[in-house]
Write a structure and sequence with these properties.
Layout (H helix, E strand, L loop, with lengths): L6 H20 L17 H6 L1 H13 L3 H19 L7 H13 L13 E4 L14 E4 L1 H17 L4
Helix pairs in contact: 4-5
């Protein structure tokens, strides 16, 4: 079966080959750099045999983030996990980055009651078909979030299923 490629694709492919050939001509003793050059791929067998080194590397990368950034990443990651659990389509990489940015932008917002916010809440819960878009998020303090979550659970128990 012959693969049909567009002229634009063929031109891009040829340009990439020419760039690699030029680089190899000027750097004969070095391997060609890849997109993962800063952290080359490590086979699972190597990672398992060097678990301490791998964990230390991950801790060092995580420590480089500010506490606010770590909090935003955790929150976006937890939200992504819940979306997958409830069958909502997972976010695209762009939506995931936007989620992290939203967390950073609203990290120090106040709760409607006036207390400092500690939690990101979904106005319409993910379990009830809500989305992870910024328009469905709000920052709440712990007592307000707990009270809202309790109401949602009670609402779900009292719901009549047809």
């Amino acid at each position: 079966m012959t693969r049909i490629r567009s002229d634009a694709y063929r031109e891009h492919d040829n340009a990439a080959h020419r760039a690699r050939r030029r680089w190899r001509a000027t750097h004969p003793d070095e391997p060609y750099p890849t997109a993962r050059e800063s952290r080359p791929f490590e086979p699972p067998a190597w990672r398992n045999a060097n678990r301490e080194k791998t964990n230390a590397d991950q801790r060092a990368r995580w420590a480089a983030f500010s506490p606010d950034m770590r909090s935003a990443i955790r929150s976006a990651s937890n939200s992504r996990t819940r979306m997958i659990k409830y069958g909502t389509p997972p976010p695209t990489p762009g939506e995931y980055q936007a989620s992290i940015q939203w967390q950073l932008d609203h990290l120090h917002d106040l709760c409607p009651c006036g207390a400092p916010s500690e939690h990101t809440d979904h106005v319409i819960p993910l379990s009830q078909g809500g989305t992870d878009l910024p328009s469905n998020r709000q920052r709440l303090c712990a007592p307000c979030h707990k009270a809202k979550s309790k109401l949602e659970v009670n609402h779900g128990k009292n719901r009549v299923h047809a």
